Structure formats: C-alpha cells, structure tokens
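Run log // design_07
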C-alpha cells in the first residue's frame, strides 16, 4: 500500500510540475504573440498576405499547444486510474487474506 501511495504522490508531483511549467510557457508564448502582432501591425513593409499567414500560424500554434495539454492530462488521468484500480485490488486482497 505504501508503494502505491508513493506512486500516486509522484504522479501528482509530476502533474503539478507540468502544469506550472506549461502555464509559464503559455504566458511567454502569449506575450510573444502580442508583441509580434503589435510589431506586425506597425510594419508597413509586410504585405497583408504575410500578416494573414502569420496570424494563421499563431492560431495553429495555440491550438496545438492546447491539444498537447489535453493529451498530457489524459495520460495523467490514465495513470491515476491504473493505480487507483491497483489500490482497490490490493485492499480486496488484503481483506481476503485477513479472513
């Protein structure tokens, strides 16, 4: 039981570390996007097609970032489910042995 609890704590620690790092990375990307868009609006040499392509690229990057976060969160959820199931089975086994 102690091993399962340690594993669950490790998963929770990794989830928290990932969430914090992801939030920081997202903030940097969002700030960079704002700066780039501001610069791009004031750049007379950049054609409107180039601005459109850049805006689409930024939108796709944001979408990919959100999809990545969802995939990682799904992975953490699956790991938690696996170890919760193992914990329940271990409790049943311990109860059966004590009878």
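design_07 sequence
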């Amino acid at each position: 039981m102690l091993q399962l609890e340690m594993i669950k704590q490790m998963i929770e620690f990794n989830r928290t570390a990932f969430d914090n790092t992801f939030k920081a990375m997202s903030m940097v990307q969002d700030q960079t996007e704002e700066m780039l868009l501001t610069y791009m609006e004031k750049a007379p040499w950049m054609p409107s097609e180039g601005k459109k392509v850049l805006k689409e690229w930024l939108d796709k990057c944001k979408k990919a970032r959100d999809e990545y976060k969802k995939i990682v969160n799904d992975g953490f959820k699956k790991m938690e489910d696996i170890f919760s199931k193992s914990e329940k089975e271990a409790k049943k086994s311990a109860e059966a042995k004590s009878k």
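Residues 1-8+47-94 form one domain.
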